[in-house]
Amino acid sequence: MFVFCGTIAACIVLLVSFLPNYTEKREAHVAYDHQDYAQVYDLLYGKELDEQDEVLFQRSNLILQMNRKLTSYENYGSLDMRLESLNALIGGVARYQAILPEAETYNVVGEVSDIYAQILDRLSADFGVSESDALEIIALEDDVAYSQRLEAIISGAVYSEDIPAGRQDVLPEEEEIIERIDGLESETEGEQPTDDMQTDVAPEEDMLPEEMMEVNADENAGEDMPTDENANEGAE
Questions:
Q1: Number of other CB atoms surrounding residue 169 within 10 Å
Q2: CA distance 62 to 112
Q3: DSSP string, the chain
Q4: Which residues contact 80 (CB under 8 A, 6 or more apart)?
Q5: Are 215 and 228 in contact (CB under 8 A)?
Q6: CA-CA distance, 83 to 126, in Å (whole number)?
Q7: Using one digit for the tens of pLDDT, what is the confidence trace for 162-205?
Q8: What's the predicted TM-score (pTM) here?
Q9: What residues have CB less than 8 Å from 155, skipping those under 6 apart?
Q10: pLDDT of the residue at 179
Q11: What percent of the chain has pLDDT over 70?
């Protein structure tokens, strides 16, 4: 009798531990079929997965990484925060380049590329930025140059990377003072040696505003706008 009761108890423990995981994994497969990738991620995250479930989890993760960029763009756009919207889309282009090999591994390139096409469409329609423009911006290694490029796109200014070093660190509010000094120097040009003259160069574009808030907890974003600290270093 004691052995029988022990067997029953062991079966109950086994069912209690196994059944919920089994049910959640089945729900994850149904959610994936309905393209509810967030639900798939939540149901499988932290679980011990077999090969099939692992593929499902990784596919959902890659799709969500791209979706987050598109969602960030839409959320910032609804708040009329165009600079942050642009940054989210540029981040989506960068994210696609980073995850494409993994998407090929898990055979989810089609879904990821569909989202990427939407990102490119919004970049072109809303900001006049092509895919090659976006890749050029991503390639910029300097945070200040990145910030200047995005600001130039938003303001409609013509961006030039050939900014003379003499005024790269000039703040916008200081520009008027410098222009006045340049005007005085021009008036007295005949009285001063040309070697002592300051060279007139273009002012620096404004820095980015405060660092964008992440809409969803992520990883892996990476990837987003330069922080105020970096911008301040460029301005000092």
A1: 13
A2: 7
A3: -HHHHHHHHHHHHHHHHHHHHHHHHHHHHHHHHTT-HHHHHHHHTTS---HHHHHHHHHHHHHHHHHHHHHHHHHHHHTT-HHHHHHHHHHHHHHHHHHHHHHHHTT-HHHHHHHHHHHHHHHHHHH---HHHHHHHHT---HHHHHHHHHHHHHTPPP-S---GGGTT--HHHHHHHHHHHHHHHHTGGGS-GGGPPPP-PPPPPPP-SPPPPSS--TT----PPPHHHHHHHH-
A4: none
A5: no
A6: 11
A7: 443 433 443 444 455 445 545 555 554 544 444 443 333 333 33
A8: 0.61
A9: 205
A10: 57
A11: 57
How far apart CA 134 and CA 77 sit, in angstroms, is: 19
Q: Structure tokens of 188? A: 């007295």
Residue 29 banded pLDDT, cuts 50, 70, 90: very high
Which residue is listed with tokens 């660092």? Answer: 211
Check residue 84 and give its pLDDT.
Answer: 96
Residue 182: both structure tokens together: 């340049």
Q: Encoding tokens for residue 82?
A: 């165009």
Nearest alpha carbon to residue 202 among 173, 160, 233, 152: 160
Q: Of 15-19, 23-27, 147-151, 201-205, which one has max mean pLDDT?
A: 147-151
What does the pLDDT read at residue 173? 46
pLDDT tens string 79-132:
999 999 999 999 999 999 999 999 999 999 999 999 999 999 999 999 999 999
Selection from 214, 213, 220 nearest residue 65 by Cα: 220
